[in-house]
Amino acid sequence: MFPKNAEAALEHTRRKRELEIRLAMEGLADLLRRKGRLGHPDFESMEFGCGDGFQIPHLRRFGKAAASDLYRSARLDGLGELDFRQCGIERTLFERERFDLIYSNQVFQDIPETLLPAIRAEARRILKPGGLLAFTVPTPLWLVFRIPAQYLGTAQSLARRAQRRGHDRATPAIASPPDGAAQGVQGRDEGALAKALRVLLPSGYGAYPGFWEAARKYRTRSWISRFEAAGFSFLEAKPLLIYAPSEWPVVPTTARLNPLGICSSVLLSFTAGSPPRKPQAV
Ligand SMILES: C[S@@+](CC[C@H](N)C(=O)[O-])C[C@H]1O[C@@H](n2cnc3c(N)ncnc32)[C@H](O)[C@@H]1O
Fold it and tell me: What pLDDT does 190 receive?
């Protein structure tokens, strides 16, 4: 059931991403069709936080696609001609009223709240009037699944290490670092309680520490109210997949689960809304 080696795990991740983007694109196509924007000859989208560009070929099915990220991945070179700008979403350097759609995949959960007003202003500047802002984010279920997934990951890597040790013992070593060298400063300075917690509790982004804060922030309702408070008009939430953040099986949400909102990733769509009105002089 679980991938047996690194290549199989990579293939698993690729299939998971493929499934997620396919479902997201189905949701977007539906939305664009209803807004009468699907198949428009001058349709153009922009992916924000595009990473290695995995999503770009999918966005190109709607029309032209541009992209931006804080960093430029060398993999973007394989995508042919692409208008890529290395920048943050809060100041994209793209022309005003250029895009029908701003899309973003698994990025907003990492964006500081303080950037929301600047993002709203920038989205409104570069979107055509009535254009869409759509993004996928993890849900609290993803955080919950992360805990056993992390234990499983730790158990797997310990098993691999034990296997390697057995292999190393069977073959003569060339040179190995002194014991403890790999532990670094953290291992030396840590108190006993902190060390026990680090070993016993799952660690890393979103799980520990900061689990409850992340769980509150990841609620679909919370995304909607924060974006509405920042001037966006909510259109819809489409549940995408149920999966843990590791090599666990991935399940698309079904017609039965969708109304219940049971999912670990969700596509949220908004329009940028109208600019805040200047207070009237009395
Ligand atoms: C989890 S990765 C997702 C990458 C890609 N969207 C995908 O699905 O494979 C998050 C990406 O967002 C980018 N990012 C984070 N904060 C950003 C910001 N303020 N402006 C632009 N890109 C940002 C990171 O550089 C990174 O490539």
Answer: 62
Question: Where are the extended beta strands (E) located within the chain?
Answer: 44-48, 64-69, 84-86, 99-105, 127-138, 233-242, 251-252, 265-271
Please state the φ and ψ torsions of residue 277, each to the nearest 5 degrees.
Answer: -70, 145
pLDDT for 185: 36
Query: Which residue among 10, 20, 69 has the greatest number of ligand 1 atoms within 8 angstroms of its CB, and so is best to mutate?
Result: 69
Beginning with the edge strand found earlier in the chain, give each strand of the sheet holding 251-252 in spatial order. Answer: 84-86, 64-69, 44-48, 99-105, 127-138, 265-271, 233-242, 251-252
pLDDT in tens, 235-247: 999 999 887 776 6
Q: Dump pLDDT digits (tens) for 142-154.
A: 888 877 777 777 7
Q: Determine phi and psi for 40, rounding to 5 degrees.
A: -65, 135
Which residue(s) pair with 105 in the sheet? 136
- Is there an atom of ligand 1 within 6 Å of 54 CB? yes
What is the distance in A from the centroid of ligand 1 to the CA of 152?
A: 27
Q: What is the whole-number distance in angstroms between the Cα of residue 109 and the centre of ligand 1? A: 10
Candidates 3.40.50.150, 3.40.50.410, 3.40.50.620, 3.30.70.120; correct CATH number of 6-139+218-271?
Answer: 3.40.50.150
- Binding site membership of 138 for ligand 1 (Cβ less than 6 Å): no
Q: Identify which has the larger pLDDT, 162 or 72.
A: 72
Distance (angstroms) between ligand 1 centre and the Cα of 159 equals 32
